[in-house]
Every structure is written in structure tokens, then in C-alpha cells.
């Protein structure tokens, strides 16, 4: 007879002293871990609930402006510095770590229409309603010196926007036409014009640095090449585009914030239909900014909320609002991709977390791995109805909520009408137009 | 045996020599896998080791996962690569896992096709599958690190292990193991029911005449001992050893480990059998009144009370794989229940007389039943519920229990018989018992102790703890059921277990169904969407020829191009349908014709 009994030595399974950590032998045999999937599902559900519990995105409000904040600019070199221009011509420079204003300049008479920093971070440019372009030093004046711009250019017409080239000492302004300026000269290097309407914003492409896009009040978006004397092409939409933003990772993708409550992501190589229509806002979209990863962007709207959209999704993943925040005019995503700033009508700049439930500060390795695990679980079970319902739920102010309902009814009515028309007319005479193609009127080259 | 060449000390290969000339390095377990004769000499007829040459019995069902990971592709990858220095990696490629280990961890059935989906979704599904496969391959490879080996009992040449007495085993094994064999002489309050806690450390026993005790049976330390002055029908530990439920004459009671009565649950009356579903925190009770009641012990609410409509319920078992409750009835059927359904999930006709005992093994694959017709049957629970093997016992078994490694114990009168199979995931073969033991009284309760080679038997003369080498899983998981856990660890485990309590509605026959694509609902949703929109948004648009260069875009040429594409599509469709037909014909032909058709076939009645 040969016999062997299972006989464990407890010394191998119990810690030696109280100072040791407990021994945890593992065996991954599936029969020892039954209900793998249901337990993971419950974990995913719990993780989703906790995400909603910890979703506290609002960080700080920077107050000090004496009129609505009209424009914001990031510092290219310092994460803590941010510049803002107000409707009374005042420019403030803020320190985000201290959440304090470190410098105030009375830059213009009337609105500060646009503000942008130079790529090296030593100076910045502002344009205002007083038909001037001013260049300022980033550092304040020395003791006894007066606060004065480095250069002032007096133009013929009002400038409504400005953007600096990402590598060269050149910048572009817009107003009646798009002007490209050399920093050293007081007259534009070139002026480009297509139609006779006021242009509301101009943006340089961060990758293909000679390209720039602008949007005008005659409903079109025009693309230019700085090296040419004439514009490249333009696309005409249903309604006016307020501003555009280029994707910092994909050179040919840009997103336009439109008056018809939608955002359109275009591929500049094929403008006849947008790549994606982002529709969740219930009022005109005023500003848009990409995250530095190029995967998401944030939009500011007249409906007193800001929303975060994934680039490839038509619905927003997040909406931020507070009781006191009025119409949001400008929004920026910080360069570390962790925070969002928005400037609104009621003179405040607000700082938000880009990921609402993220824990700030240094995470321990256990926290990090638990976070990763939860993230993966949420991703795995995201399509289950309970998980989806909890993950999608957002509290909305009554005004936005009721407007969403109203617009849903309107959209449904339109769809029903079209369906009825199609039903009662000759087959093929009422074509099915996809949502993407509906809003593009024409493309001109 | 060939030894693997050392990576550092080997001479660099000569230039002219072909790499194919070199003998492929082998790992020691590969050697084992190819030549079973080369293994240690103790491979005999009835070993419990999962032998590498294990074969499924011919009538047995095919395993769910037939595919062997690391097949041909892995072999191709394992060609030695030459580096610049001329040194060769003696073990190129990923470390291979043993085939049976890999099969154990395999979760994905590659024979099942993925549901039809758009390309993006499909690639996502494929990526998820690949990840899962990678994870199971890694888990299979980590099998190597397990510390303990399972026990075994082998006779000398021709010796029958069933004839080996417990006293012989006790003499042969080490002192620590010998101490696990004991008899509690409790003639006064017998017959006894018993239950081990999930870690296998604690034992609760309840005598029919009211004696209830809980003890740490390893150290033989008594936790509590009371007399409830009432008949005790069954006893069951709840999720930890701190609580246990006792089915008494009238009502169900819950005690803590000091014997203090915590709850008296009057909604569960005249309970005969108790089962605890640890991951759902449900206590399932079967009563004389014919109700199967699920009590959620974490919140103290009754989840459902199901009327089995089959009279008195006295036979119950749980399937540890999917938490389905099996009830045996007096008409010979076994019905499968989940709290989510008012009707049984399945009914299996098992015996001609009533069912006396039911047990389900830990993988949820096999069910053993015994009936009043003195039969002992093993059923396959995957799909068809067909009996795999049957055996008539002279008296018929009144109690059945499966061990973690698939041993089947049956209490026949005052004798306990134990049958063993070929390793863990195979059914026990009923021809020859592996062990037998005669007790001093009739068997009243049976349970294998988890993680110990011990079978606890409650009988009219008290409690016997039998030694059954090879019964238990040798390697426990410290985060799941740790017999050596401290109080702090237990508390932490309890919180985590409560946090991931699985809702009762999720109990169904296939617990993995939750992770599969719900094609039916998807199609329903799609249909509704098409109805709402008035057109199919995902439909392929009709071909519209693009306008070509000047002069070549006449109406006639456009029509011609359009027609060409349409014809091509049509041809493809025809070809596909033809191929399908051919395949069907082939399959029909390939079906075994069996005996040659005869003229007398016409007299066979087809029902």
C-alpha cells in the first residue's frame, strides 16, 4: 500500500512575525473561483456607482474681472499661468496653483477681442475694439516703469481675433479680412479675403503650421495656406460657425462650433460631409478647444454649460454646469490635459477637472492598480443596461433639461413629417439624407 | 532522459552546420508528455494523478473546449533564432503550458462563431477574445508554481484499495494526518447531520435530538455546544464560521459561534434541508410544505418562495458552478431551480422510484443521484442531461457527496463507499469502489471537508472523520477560502464578499451568459429602430457609378457599369448558396450510415 495524505505545514502559510505581511498563496483554477463573470459584473456596477459618487469636477473660481471674460489663452511653457481678456478691455494674468491674479493690464478701450501667447512664452498679443494690435511682455514692468505694450499697431478696421504661428515670428488677425503679420513690421505681409463678411476667428494648425482656418459670419469656414496669396477652400454650413479648433494630433482634423447647437468635426481633405456631428448642446456653441491628446474636446455654449465630447462620438460624455455660471464664452483645455478652464459672462473663470471623478494628487500603486482594474471592468461591461444607465446619468438644470425634451419632440416631429412625405410620394423622390450631410450647404474650392 | 543544454556553457554552433541538424531542446514535462512509460513507476490502474495520457471515456461527452492552445502555430514559432553573436536561445518563444492545464483554464470556445457584426465591433470582440486567451495561457503557465501535490492511495500489485482499512491508513500516514481521523461517540442525541465551513477549518454538527455544536475540528477546539430541546433537521454554516443556520422542528434559527440565538425565521417553517449559496448570500431552504425558499442573509429578506408542487421536499443539493438548486422528488424526477424563475429550469427523470439523494460536483458537470430503485446514476449536466453511468447497489444509497477533486461518496446503510474517477474533471467510475468503511450506525449526513483529505460522516452513533487520500484540492486560493486566515483577513474578506454579492436574479444555468453578446435583444432593437425610422440606416446603399472623365460618362456606359456590378453581386449570391447546398449534402453523406439499409427497415415504426 502506498499512501500520501494532503498535509500542509502551517509555517508555509502563516506569517512568521507580526511585522511581516500576511502570506496569500494563489491558485487561479477556475473551479476555485466560480461565478467569475457575475462577480466581475457586480464589481463593474459598483465601480460605476463609485465613479458617480466621486464625480466632483469643480475646483475653483477665479474672480476679479469687472466685466464678462471674453477670451482665454494658455501659457506655452508654464502650466500654472493663464491669461484672460475681459469685455472692459482688461487683461489679467493668473497663477493657477495659487489661484490668484498676478498682473492686471488695462489693454484696450472696449472689448479685448482676442488674446494669444507667443510660442516662446515671453510675450503675448491682444486685439481689441479700439482697432489696435498690442504686444505685451509676459513679465511685469520693473520698478518705476510704466505698464506699456512692446509694440502697438493701429489698424484701419476692428480686429476680432488673433492667433500666433506655432514656430515662426508671425501672427494672423481677422476682422474684415485675414491678415498675416510679421512681428517686425507694422503692415500685414499679406491679406486674404473671400467674400465681404466679418471673420470671427482665425486659428493656426499646430502641426502643418502654415495652414490656418477661419470662420466668417456668412456661414462659411475658410482654409488658407500662409505661403499662398489666396485662400485654399471653404465649406458653407447651415448656420454661422463661431470658432474652430484644430486637432493637435491629427493635422487634417478640425472641429467647428456652430450656432445651430452642434459641433462639426471635419476632415479638411473631404469637406463635403463632416466626419462627425456632435449634438448635445441646447443653444449656440461659442467656443471649442481640444485636449492635448487629440482624443477629446471641450465646448462652451450659450446654454450656460460646457460639455466634453470624444472625437469619435456624437454624444457628449460629460456636462459641467453650476448655478451661478452664465453663458460660457470661452473655454480652454490645459496642456497637461487634466483641467479645463472656462470664462463666462458673469466675470468669473472656472477651473474644472477634465475627468470628473479623478482623484487629484499622487496615487499609491495600489490605488493606481485598483483604478486601472475598475476602468477595465467598466469598459468590459459598459453595454449592460444597468451599468449604462448609471454611467450616463447626469443631473441637469431645469432649463437645459426642459429644452432637451422640447428639442427631442421637435426633432421627432420633423422626422415623422419626412417619413410621411416619403411614404406618400414617388419612391426615390424624397431621398434619405444622413445627419452628416444635412448641414453642409456647399464646398467651394 | 535528455537534459536541456545550458544557455551559457554550450559551444557556439559551427558555421556549416544546419540549424535543423540540432536536436530540438526539450523541457522535462514534454518528455513526460510524449512517453508515459518514462514517468515514475507508480502509475497504476487506479491512481488519482491526472495522467498525461488521460483519455475521455468513449461514451463521455466531449469537453466544452476542444481546442488545444499552443498547437501548430506555437510549434512554428518555436524555431530557434540565430542572433548576431551566433548564440542561440535554447528555449525560444514563450514557455509552453501543459495541455491539460491549458484546457482547464481555457474559457473561450473557438468552435463557436462570433456573432455577425460590423468590422469595428468585430475587431473589438476579437481583441477581447485574444486578451482572454492570453490571460488563460498565463494562468496555465503559473500552474507550475503551485506548492502542494494532491494525495493518493495505491495498492500493491493486485491489492484492492477498497479493502484497505482506515486503521491501516492511519498507521501509514504522518501524525498530523493521522490526527484528522477521529470518531465522536455521541449515541445519546444521534443521528447527526454535519457541515464544514467553506475554509474547511470548522465543523458544525446537529443531532436529531437537539444537540448542536460547532468546533474547530483541526485543533479540536469547541466553539459552542448547546441543546436546542427540539428536533434538528439540518445544520449549515453561513458565509463564515461565525454564523450557522439550524433547521429545527418548527422554524429556522440562526446562531452565532458562541451558540447565541440571533434570529428565528418563522417564515421558513418545517425546513428539512438547507443549502447556502455563498456568492449570492442566499440560504435556500426546502420544507415539508413543498416550498423552496431563498433567504438573503445579508439583508434578512426572503427573496422568493417557490412552490415546487411536488409534495414534501427532503432531497436538495446545490450546483456550485451556477448556484442552481437541485430538488429530488418522490416521482423520480430531479428539478432545477433558480430564484429568478417561478418554474423549474429543467426537470430530469432519473429514477423509477423516488429520488433519495442528489449531489453535484464542483465543476458543475456531473450530478449523482440515487433512488428508491437502488440505482446510483451519474448524469451529465452540460446540455442534454443524459445518464453517463449507472450501478445498482444492494441497498441503495441514502446520502451522496462529491469531493473537490471529483470523488463520490455514498452512504449505504452503515457503510460508506467512495468511488474515484481519472483525475479532476472526469466522472467517477462506478465499477470498483476506491474506499469503503463501515460505521457504528446508519449514515445520516455526508460531506467532504474542503481542502483536507477528510470525509465527515454523521451517523446514528455520532460523527466519524474518515481519511480519504486524494479527495481535496491541495492548493487553496488565499483570497477566496484561506484555512489559515487571521481574524483581520477574515474581516477584510467579508467586506469584499459583501461588496460583490451577486444579485439573485443572475442565477441561471450558464453563469457565463452575462459576458456573451445578446444577439436576440440586439436584433429586436434593430428591428424597432428600422420601424421607427422608416428605413434601415445600416443597409448597404445601391451602387451608384461615379462620373468619369470627359467623354466616358455617357448614360449607356453608366448603365453598363451599374449592370456589371449588379451581375457580379448576383453571381456571388448564387455561388454562396450553391456552396452552402454542397456543404449540406456533404454533411448528410458523411453521417454514419450504420448498418446497411435492409428491406425490413420499412417495418420500423417511427414515433
From TrEMBL, chain A:
Family: Belongs to the WD repeat DCAF13/WDSOF1 family.
Species for this entry: Nannospalax galili
Pfam families (alphabetical): Sof1, WD40
Gene3D superfamilies found in the cross-reference section: YVTN repeat-like/Quinoprotein amine dehydrogenase (2.130.10.10)
CDD domains cross-referenced by the UniProt entry: WD40
UniProt GO BP: decidualization; epigenetic programming in the zygotic pronuclei; maturation of SSU-rRNA from tricistronic rRNA transcript (SSU-rRNA, 5.8S rRNA, LSU-rRNA); negative regulation of phosphatidylinositol 3-kinase/protein kinase B signal transduction; oocyte growth; proteasome-mediated ubiquitin-dependent protein catabolic process; protein ubiquitination; spindle assembly involved in female meiosis
CC per GO annotation: cell junction; centrosome; Cul4-RING E3 ubiquitin ligase complex; cytosol; nucleoplasm; small-subunit processome
Localisation per UniProt entry: Nucleus, Nucleolus
Xref: PANTHER family: DDB1- AND CUL4-ASSOCIATED FACTOR 13, U3 SMALL NUCLEOLAR RNA U3 SNORNA ASSOCIATED PROTEIN
Identification of the protein by name: DDB1- and CUL4-associated factor 13
Automatic annotation (TrEMBL), chain B:
Ranges for domain BING4 C-terminal: 433-511
Record has Cell wall biogenesis/degradation as a keyword: no
Subcellular location as annotated: Nucleus, Nucleolus
SMART domains, alphabetized: BING4CT (SM01033), WD40 (SM00320)
Biased amino acid composition, Basic residues: 14-26, 64-77
Skewed-composition ranges (Low complexity): 1-13
Keyword tags: Nucleus, Phosphoprotein, Repeat, WD repeat
Gene Ontology CC annotations of this record: 90S preribosome; small-subunit processome
Domain of life: Eukaryota
Main location per the UniProt record: nucleus
Sequence ranges of the WD repeats: 348-382
Biased composition (Basic and acidic residues): 565-578
InterPro entries named among the record's database cross-references: BING4_C_dom, WD40/YVTN_repeat-like_dom_sf, WD40_repeat_dom_sf, WD40_rpt, WDR46/Utp7
Any one Gene Ontology BP term: maturation of SSU-rRNA from tricistronic rRNA transcript (SSU-rRNA, 5.8S rRNA, LSU-rRNA)
Region annotation (Disordered) ranges: 1-97, 110-133, 536-600
Function of the molecule: Scaffold component of the nucleolar structure. Required for localization of DDX21 and NCL to the granular compartment of the nucleolus. Part of the small subunit (SSU) processome, first precursor of the small eukaryotic ribosomal subunit. During the assembly of the SSU processome in the nucleolus, many ribosome biogenesis factors, an RNA chaperone and ribosomal proteins associate with the nascent pre-rRNA and work in concert to generate RNA folding, modifications, rearrangements and cleavage as well as targeted degradation of pre-ribosomal RNA by the RNA exosome.
Subunit organization: Part of the small subunit (SSU) processome, composed of more than 70 proteins and the RNA chaperone small nucleolar RNA (snoRNA) U3. Interacts with DDX21, NCL, NOP2 and EBNA1BP2.
Name recorded for this polypeptide: WD repeat-containing protein 46
Lineage: Eukaryota, Metazoa, Chordata, Craniata, Vertebrata
Gene name for this UniProt entry: Wdr46
